Amino acid sequence: MSYGILAPFYDRLNRGVDYEAWADYLEACFSRYMEKKPELVLDLACGTGAMTLALARRGYDMTALDISDEMLAEAESSARREGFSNILFLRGDMTDFELYGTVQAVVCCLDGINHLTAPGDLDACFGLVSNYLEPGGLFCFDLNTPYKFRTVYADRDYILEDDGVVCCWRNRLTKKGDRADFYLTVFEEKNGVWLRRDDLTSEHAYGLRAVKNALERNGMKLVSVSSDYAFSEPTDTTERWYLAAAKI
After folding, report:
1. Cα 195 from Cα 186, distance rounded (Å)
2. What distance in Å separates the CA atoms of residue 171 and residue 122, rounded to the nearest whole number?
3. Other C-beta atoms within 10 Å of 174: how many?
4. How do residues 201-236 score in pLDDT, each as one tens digit?
5. HEC sequence for 155-177
6. CA–CA separation, 217 vs 172, rounded Å?
7. Which domain CATH number covers 138?
8. Is there a single domain that holds both residue 155 and residue 122?
9. By the number of CB atoms within 10 A of the CB, which of 20, 158, 193, 224 ranks highest?
10. Residue 82 and residue 113: Cα distance in Å, rounded?
11. How would you classify residue 159: left for phi > 0, otherwise alpha for psi between -120 and 50, otherwise beta?
């Protein structure tokens, strides 16, 4: 599942995400770990395009890729409203996609990598990222940590609400604690009638060693792991890692 049923409401239900601050962090990574500022940037698993647009506003030439037709439709609609006509939107799987050429940077935000749950998915994704990254290019992504899986996800239920929409989010953690299944029920109000839709998605909890090894197998080197946009060192209770890897 690719959050397709959430596409029309995703940004409204995630208003707490500060994409501009996140974009500031990404630009700080470009400055720290690249010899020159990138021009061509791929937003992998772009969703509704919030980060695509945040970077496009800063002058980057963006390609945005997602597996969900519904998410891409929202992203393209937002781009048109802002007057962007030069963003390339592509439908594709993170483990099986093609670009028209190489890029200098790849970003993947809001735990997109955690959605790689099948054996071999991590290497398949990292292999493609490395293939399309120019030498010296940078791959910036984030991960929900194993600690978050155990304490925040666990076997918990959450309710997200906004005008005319309610999302019931039920989490079920495997006994090993390395996978969380999310059972989603969305209620949308239309003309006084509430419509219900259900779906299922999952995330995998990756350890840093597994990620580092997968990057190295695919020609990239982990250069930074932070717990926030200020490059703070992670702790045992960090819920999200922010990582940067350089193409060797």
Report:
1. 8
2. 23
3. 13
4. 999 999 999 999 999 999 999 999 999 999 999 999
5. CCEEEEEECCEEEEEEEEECCCC
6. 32
7. 3.40.50.150
8. no
9. 224
10. 28
11. beta
CA atoms 148, 153, 158, 163: torsion sign: positive
C-alpha 44/C-alpha 39 separation (Å) is 16
**Same structural domain, 177 and 227:** no
Handedness of CA 235, 248, 46, 87 (dihedral sign): positive
Q: State pLDDT tens for residues 14-71.
A: 888 999 999 999 999 999 999 999 999 999 999 999 999 999 999 999 999 999 999 9
- Domain extent at residue 185: 147-203
Instruction: Please give, one letter per residue, the 3-state secondary structure of 183-214.
Output: EEEEEEEECCEEEEEEEEEEEECCCHHHHHHH
Residues 154 and 53 in one domain: no
Look up the CATH number of the domain holding residue 165. 2.20.25.110
Tokens for 132? Answer: 């399309």
Give the pLDDT confidence of 122-159 residue by residue, as tens digits.
Answer: 999 999 999 999 999 999 999 999 999 999 999 999 99
Q: What are phi and psi of 103, to 5 degrees?
A: -130, 165
* Predicted model pTM: 0.94
Measured CA to CA, the distance from residue 221 to residue 177 in angstroms comes to 27
Burial 200-226 (b: 16+ CB within 10 A, else e): ebebbbbeeeebbebbeebbbebebbb
205 φ, ψ (degrees, to nearest 5): -90, 110
